[in-house]
Design goal:
By secondary structure, the chain is of the alpha/beta class. The chain has two domains: 189 residues, Spore Coat Polysaccharide Biosynthesis Protein SpsA, Chain A; 38 residues. The protein has twelve helices and nine strands. The chain has a four-stranded mixed β-sheet with strand order 3-6-5-7, covered by helices on one side. Strands 4-9-8 form a three-stranded mixed β-sheet. The C terminus is likely disordered.
């Protein structure tokens, strides 16, 4: 996870060289950084360590996330650690709204998961509705409305834990509805979720992976970059440039014909097609009667 954080920071530094970067961690993570990965202190402007008072790592991270508006001063851009920055992020803060972000693409069209709607009902909250913000990429102003939103997010997260676990997005949505703060909704490009199978993208400014996929799928660009950092202490910027040119979240040929075709790996798509054809024509693939 520390290597993933390092990679995310390096990509942000490449695009926004003058960014002031704060890394918000709990006390056990600070100790882990100092003991095992001290380079993280060198690539950020501030390492902010907080005693969350929570033993569980996942819950502690949600505590920090829902409290960050209270813990950090100044306007801030929050990025999850499983993100890669490819292009200029100015539209995230070039507006007058209190907060900006991207609609969570799992709920586009109001198709909310039944577990989410049941959780809201159990808590007595108004049913979720669009826009439903993805909390992995957000710009947040430091003003009275911003602070009010932060207080409400933490309060609703505490309220919802027994019903919905330590997920933070439902509480953020509830806080935005209650406070009514202004929102600037941006295109999916500014928080482009990456699925297990490549698909055609537009012009992503931020690629947002699932942590599980980033750690274990060797085809993903973020996994390639993490392995380079582990082996060399840096990464090949040409991989990021290829991602920009081809809108490609993958580092090497991945599964499927369409995925390889979408990401410009035409040879790999052709070979995958030949393999499937061979399997179809193979006698062993036929059903033999008695």
């Amino acid at each position: 996870m520390l290597v993933m954080t390092h990679v995310a920071i390096l990509t942000l530094r490449l695009v926004h060289t003058d960014a002031s970067i704060s890394l918000l961690v709990d006390l056990p993570t600070e100790k882990l950084i100092d003991d095992a990965y001290p380079v993280l202190r060198d690539v950020v402007n501030n390492l902010v360590a907080v005693d969350s008072g929570i033993q569980d790592g996942a819950a502690s991270s949600r505590y920090l996330k829902t409290k960050m508006r209270d813990l950090l001063d100044g306007d801030l851009l929050f990025l999850d650690i499983d993100t890669l920055v490819l292009r200029d992020l100015t539209p995230l803060w070039d507006h007058d709204s209190v907060i900006s972000g991207v609609h969570d693409d799992n709920t586009l069209g109001g198709n909310f998961d039944s577990r989410l709607t049941e959780g809201f009902k159990t808590l007595g909250w108004p049913a979720p509705k669009e826009p439903y913000l993805n909390s992995g990429v957000m710009f947040w102003r430091d003003n009275p409305d911003g602070r009010r939103l932060g207080e409400a997010w933490y309060r609703f997260w505490l309220e919802s834990r027994q019903v919905m676990g330590d997920t933070d997005q439902p509480a953020l949505h509830r806080a935005m509805v209650e406070t009514g703060v202004s929102l600037k909704l941006l295109p999916q490009d500014y928080n482009q979720k990456v699925r297990d199978t490549p698909r055609k993208l537009k012009r992503p400014a931020i690629l947002h992976y699932e942590t599980r996929s980033a750690l274990h799928s060797k085809h993903t660009l973020i996994n390639h970059l993490m392995r380079q950092v582990n082996e060399n202490g840096a990464f090949d910027e040409s991989l990021l440039e290829r991602a920009r040119q081809r809108n490609d979240p993958w580092g090497s040929a991945g599964p499927g014909i369409k995925g390889n075709w979408y990401t410009g790996r035409y040879g790999a798509a052709f070979l995958e097609g030949l393999k499937r054809l061979a399997r179809t024509l193979s006698p062993s693939s036929s059903t033999h009667g008695a």
